[in-house]
Amino acid sequence: MPVPSGFHRRHSPPSAQSARTRPIWSAGRTALAAFSAAVLATAAAGERVDIQTRDGRGITGTVVREAQDGSLLLEHDSGRYELLAPATIASRSTPAPPAPSETPAESGKRVLAELPAGFDLLVTKHYVVCFDTSREYAKWSAALFERLHDAFGNYWSRAGLAVADPQRPLVVVIFANRQDYEAHAAGDLGAAADRVVGYYNLLSNRVTTFDLTGSDVLAPQRSRRPGQVGLEILSNPAATGLISTLVHEATHQLAFNDGMHQRLAPVPLWVSEGIATYFETPDLTTTRAWRAVGSVNQPRLDHFLKTYRPGCLEGIIRADDSFRNPDTALDSYAAAWALCHHLLQMRKGEFVEYLQVLAAKQPLAADSPTERLKEFRAAFGDPEAVEQGVMKTAARLASRPR
């Protein structure tokens, strides 16, 4: 899933059955919780402002939410979110008319300025890829993300959900090796950085990963001949989990940028993680590595059937706690896949209407188990009856030849 620091979540290859937790909020869980409790439903949301901070920074951005004490959740022009406490704000004013929009290359250069020396830039139709590995690997990764982008948009448009291209290029950062990646990721993921091959950060709005051909779980040879990068990755059995993680995190990035979800809004984790697991299944029969939407996610299916307990689906519908608990996270991810797969296969229209309800939720809006259960019942009916349908679907899928 996405990552906000303070919610240290583990992002490991899904098929490797490692636990995950919630998106990363760089301001920290306590600060955001306090801010959320004091949020105003104010017309200031959407307002463009110039902020001068007491440490000398000048920030121009858009107010996402404002709290009663004057705290601001601000979106930088780069798409990054920042929480500003009143004590850090020296002045606030209305900016001059905006300058012409940045080009993708200009946006990318701003990201490069935040990264260690040696990073280069690759601009594609929908992505800005910042990398310090080979350009061949960056191109292979960008092609994977572009295929996902097109498939994601086509799938939901055909389903009747209005999605739009992101307003700005999606940023992906690729480190050349795992060591440098982990050093960088530690700021977002803490001690979990060494168990994660890629993650999406809800605050920075970026996917961060490293060159998988340099991963210590893959074969050491690095041919770098044109067209060979995909073969290097796919030649190792660990490729399934690695590619699944990349597609999973990139799916989160798309969902939070195309109008499906709003960043920091109370989107139930069974929905966001269920959709990401629905898309994450790789295709190792081609060097393109991924091309299918909604294929049976065999590791998730197997785990769901192995760990299923009556009532488990209502548990993840009501609350997200089990996703954050390392002892139950894998079970919850598997249950989220089973629930979303069933609904998207059997009740897609109702699922789309439910997504439209969630899309209207504002960042840091209030949420409760009672409200979540009420919204689910309105969309799909009694959770117990839905669970029976999920089990029938899962049993049917398990009986198919592999």
What features would you describe in this structure?
Among the domains are: 14-26 and 109-241, Glutaredoxin (3-Layer(aba) Sandwich); 38-92, SH3 type barrels, CATH 2.30.30. The model is unreliable at 5-28 and 216-224 (pLDDT under 50). The strands form two sheets. Strands 1, 2, 3, 4, 5 and 6 form a six-stranded antiparallel beta sheet that branches. With 402 residues, the protein is α+β, with helices and mostly antiparallel strands. The protein has helices at residues 29-37, 104-112, 135-159, 178-189, 229-234, 239-255, 269-279, 298-307, 312-318, 321-324, 329-346, 348-359, 369-380, 383-398; strands at 39-40, 48-53, 58-67, 72-76, 81-84, 89-93, 120-123, 127-131, 170-175, 198-201, 206-210. Strand 10 and strand 11 form a beta hairpin.
Briefly, what is this?
This protein is α+β, with helices and mostly antiparallel strands.
Mean pLDDT: 84
- Termini separation comes to 28 Å
Calculate Rg over CA atoms: 21 Å
Summed up, the helix count is: 14
CATH class of one domain: Alpha Beta
| Structural class by sheet pairing and helices | alpha+beta
- Do you know the CATH architecture of one domain? 3-Layer(aba) Sandwich
- Outline type: globular
Q: Estimate the strand proportion.
A: 5-15%
**Tally of strands:** 11
Measured as a percent range, the helix fraction is 40-55%
CATH fold-type name of one domain: Glutaredoxin
Low-confidence stretches: 5-28, 216-224
